[in-house]
Amino acid sequence: MSRKSIAFALGIATLMGLGFSAAAAFTESATTPGETAQQAGPITAAAAKQDPREQARQSIAAGLKYLLSQQKPDNTWQNPHEPPGITAIVLKALVRDPNLRNDAQVKRGYEALLKFQLDSGGIYKDALASYNTAIAISALAMADNPEYKPAIVKAVAYLKSLQWTDSIQGPKGEKVVDAANPWYGGWGYGGQSRGAGRPDLSNTQMAMDALKDAGLPPDDPAFKAAAKFVSRLQNFSETNDRPWVGNDGGFVYGPADTGTGESLAGEYTDADGKRLLRSYGSMTYAGLKSMVYAGLTKEDPRVTAAWGWISHNWTLDENPGMRLGKPENAKYGLYYYLQTLAKTLAVYGDPTITDPQGMKHNWPAEVVQKVSSLQRPDGSWAGDKKWYEDNPVLATAYAVTALQDALDAMGK
């Protein structure tokens, strides 16, 4: 695999990292004193004249038309140096349209994707085995085609074999001795990995998406182990005893190679000199969704704390928390953030978020308004170059998926 291929794949995987009580003490939330996040306001009177459902349908239709126009001669959607996960992400968006489920063009896309499945069951090329296989499983499951069942079964078995438990060994000989290890229950990139192959919340939430889409129940051992891993990445000292933990209820990226914790939003020191990791939006939504998949209820204090962080840091304009690391980071991974937000809130099942000022936000309608406002005349979306969201195929697939989840939450 070329250096360019690995760099692109790792960039996409890094982008995926962008992937209690209401009275919890927000020791360093995304909106610290003197620094206010840009908040998405309620729907304006002018915008409200258009039914958000119809607005979503129109934007989705234009986005899907654009994606269909970008299919390559080999029936994929990725360039030669890009991973097959790009094709899987596009197929996930296309197949949710019932009129496209049996479309010949879409079927050819699935045939092209399945050509990447290996004897092991993994669906990837050269690197990032977990990331690519997980997205492919979700795409195949969403097609609801019995012909894909054998491929899904093989891929699920392979993906479960990559979960960090005491029964596997990493690419450099790493081992998790028992459930007390901070790596236990998580997924990393698989294959060629960043660092020593350590797991992170981004890859873990994608793996959990895949297992959920494939029909695994919440009491499956893989979900139970993952719940341990996810809980150890939450800034919530009531249930997490890691040394870097604060109490704002949000989530960080991963345990790092060393087990000392890592946040793409950076770290800070409190008044007592304690090192703390900063929570941020995409990982907090990923953490909440993962806990719901693992069967935790809304009454669980971990879920309540995560919801508190989300309510306290509600915005659709940037990935909250990232600005505090570096201001220029606020827009990185915006479309991935919006997709993760919409998916999580749809799974959580509450259509209203109340911010610290007491303003109630109808999140499905606001997501539709925000995402539709960013659509380009040709039906596509494009974002910042940093993590490949300047690739309109990738950004459009993210945007369409966010709109689809918002539309489902409103009721079609």
- Largest β-sheet summary: 2 strands, antiparallel
How many helices does DSSP assign?
A: 15
Q: How much strand content do the residues show?
A: under 5%
Give the overall average pLDDT: 87
Q: How far apart lie the N and C ends?
A: 44 Å
Radius of gyration: 20 Å
Number of E-type strands: 4
Give the SSE string.
HHHHHHHHHEEHHHHEEHH
Helix content: 40-55%
Uncertain segments are: 18-48, 192-196
Structural class: mainly alpha
Order of adjacent strands in the largest pleated sheet: 1-2
Rough outline: globular
Topology diagram in text:
Layout (H helix, E strand, L loop, with lengths): L2 H13 L29 H4 L3 H18 L15 H11 L8 H11 L14 H14 L6 H13 L39 H13 L7 H11 L35 E3 L5 E3 L3 H13 L7 H12 L9 H4 L8 H15 L3 E3 L5 E3 H11 L18 H19 L2
Antiparallel strand pairs: 1-2, 3-4
Helix pairs in contact: 3-14, 3-15, 4-5, 4-6, 4-15, 6-7, 6-8, 8-10, 9-10, 10-11, 10-13, 13-15, 14-15
What does this structure look like?
The protein has 412 residues and is an all-alpha fold. The protein is 44% helix and 3% strand. The chain has 15 helices and four strands. The chain has a two-stranded antiparallel sheet with strand order 1-2. Strand 3 and strand 4 form a beta hairpin. Helix 10 runs parallel beside helix 13. The radius of gyration is 20 Å and the shape is globular. About 9% of the residues have low confidence.
